[in-house]
């Protein structure tokens, strides 16, 4: 690809097409609206668009990113070659295949761990002695925050000294974490999630891995929960989230509630909109656009694993009640570990 580009100046000619940014942006938006492939499974009736549609969508987006950088006069041979080397990797849909596995000894994972250490200290508490390789689990994690830094640091980076003894299922590569589709469109963020073994959280993709005997971890509140991010905020979205319960019932997965204290404490969100711009951003991408400010302070991130919930002979509402009670029990028992919420209650929306 580099050789062809050098001889025919493909990137240069492409980036100099009049209004190319507008064409790419409109194409991306129309594809996202018509297929809803970046939104939750509810919007696309449990179906995935064809790979051709997804390929076009991703290609539009990455070329839009390139052309915007090009217009900043950042075009040079080194950057072009780097982009061309990255392009096949970006377009190969590892988020659907699950062929990237968590490896705590990967040099890039260790580098990410160094960055995450600057945010604070990480610990896992699993006093119920569960989560081994003999069951299939659905780990239902709260809260999401703007980015669940605490949960990532605790579970998928070599930061917690007790990770091997506390949650051995991680090291057996028998689990995948579902992540919002649009996260795999954003360079660097995509790569971080792939390096920790994440997959697209669309229901057809999740069910494919469940049928192959994998456990699944989900941030049930989703990206919408980011609007509650803020120091000492205890709001979570549960009552409208029944899909994960149905998934567990249909596939006989053992549900485990997990609460990570400190996830909300790194960013203060403002739930303001201007002319519905952010509403339409969410309609297109399926994620909440961050607006707020970073809280520059170190935090203690503690992920507490609650009691497991067996799904046999339960209906959705009964299962939801059990989950809420177990999650609330975790919160009340361990909230003293986070000074910002030690006198607060879990606010369940």
**Fraction of residues in helix:** 40-55%
Decide which structural class fits the backbone.
alpha/beta
The count of helical stretches stands at 14
Question: What fraction strand?
Answer: 5-15%
Encode the helix/strand succession as letters: HHHHHHHEEHHEHEHEEHEEHEEHE
Which whole number gives the mean pLDDT?
85
Number of strands: 11
Uncertain runs: none
Largest sheet: 7 strands, mixed
The N- to C-terminal Cα distance equals: 50 Å
How is the largest sheet built, in terms of strand order?
Answer: 1-10-7-2-5-3-4
What's the overall geometry? globular
Tell me the Rg in angstroms.
Answer: 21 Å
Structure description:
The protein is an alpha/beta fold. 42% of the residues lie in helices and 14% in strands. The chain has a 7-stranded mixed beta sheet with strand order 1-10-7-2-5-3-4, sandwiched between helices. A two-stranded parallel sheet has the order 6-11. The protein has a two-stranded antiparallel sheet with strand order 8-9. The longest helix is centred in the N-terminal third of the chain and has 24 residues, at 51-74. It is globular and about 65 Å long. The chain starts with a helix and ends with a strand.
What topology emerges from the helices and strands here?
Layout: H1 2-8, H2 10-15, H3 20-35, H4 51-74, H5 77-90, H6 94-97, H7 107-117, E1 120-125, E2 137-142, H8 149-155, H9 163-166, E3 175-179, H10 189-195, E4 198-200, H11 203-211, E5 215-219, E6 235-236, H12 243-251, E7 254-261, E8 267-269, H13 277-285, E9 292-294, E10 299-305, H14 316-334, E11 347-348
Parallel strand pairs: 1-10, 2-5, 2-7, 3-4, 3-5, 6-11
Antiparallel strand pairs: 7-10, 8-9
């Amino acid at each position: 690809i580099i050789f062809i580009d050098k001889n025919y100046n493909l990137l240069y000619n492409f980036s100099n097409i009049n209004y190319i940014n507008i064409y790419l942006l409109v194409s991306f938006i129309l594809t996202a609206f018509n297929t809803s492939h970046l939104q939750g499974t509810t919007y696309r009736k449990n179906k995935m668009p064809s790979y051709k549609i997804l390929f076009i969508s991703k290609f539009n987006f990455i070329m839009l990113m390139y052309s915007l950088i090009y217009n900043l006069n950042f075009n040079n041979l080194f950057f072009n070659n780097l982009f061309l080397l990255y392009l096949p990797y970006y377009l190969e849909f590892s988020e659907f295949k699950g062929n990237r596995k968590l490896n705590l000894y990967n040099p890039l994972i260790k580098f990410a761990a160094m960055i995450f250490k600057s945010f604070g200290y990480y610990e896992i508490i699993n006093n119920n002695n569960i989560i081994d390789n003999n069951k299939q689990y659905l780990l239902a994690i709260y809260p999401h925050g703007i980015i669940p830094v605490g949960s990532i640091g605790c579970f998928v980076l070599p930061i917690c000294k007790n990770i091997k003894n506390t949650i051995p299922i991680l090291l057996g590569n028998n689990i995948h974490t579902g992540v919002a589709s649009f996260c795999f469109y954003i360079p660097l963020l995509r790569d971080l999630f792939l390096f920790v073994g994440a997959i697209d959280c669309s229901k057809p993709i999740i069910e494919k891995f469940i049928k192959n005997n994998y456990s699944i971890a989900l941030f049930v509140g989703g990206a919408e929960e980011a609007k509650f991010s803020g120091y000492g905020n205890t709001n979570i979205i549960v009552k409208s989230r029944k899909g994960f319960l149905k998934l567990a019932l249909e596939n006989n997965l053992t549900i485990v509630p997990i609460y990570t204290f400190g996830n909300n404490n790194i960013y203060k969100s403002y739930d303001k909109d201007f002319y519905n711009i952010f509403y339409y951003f969410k309609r297109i991408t399926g994620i909440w656009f961050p607006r707020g400010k970073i809280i520059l302070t170190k935090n203690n991130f503690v992920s507490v694993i609650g009691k497991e919930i067996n799904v046999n002979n339960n209906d959705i509402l009964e299962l939801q009640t059990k989950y809420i009670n177990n999650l609330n029990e975790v919160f009340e028992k361990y909230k003293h570990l986070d000074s910002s919420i030690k006198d607060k209650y879990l606010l369940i929306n």
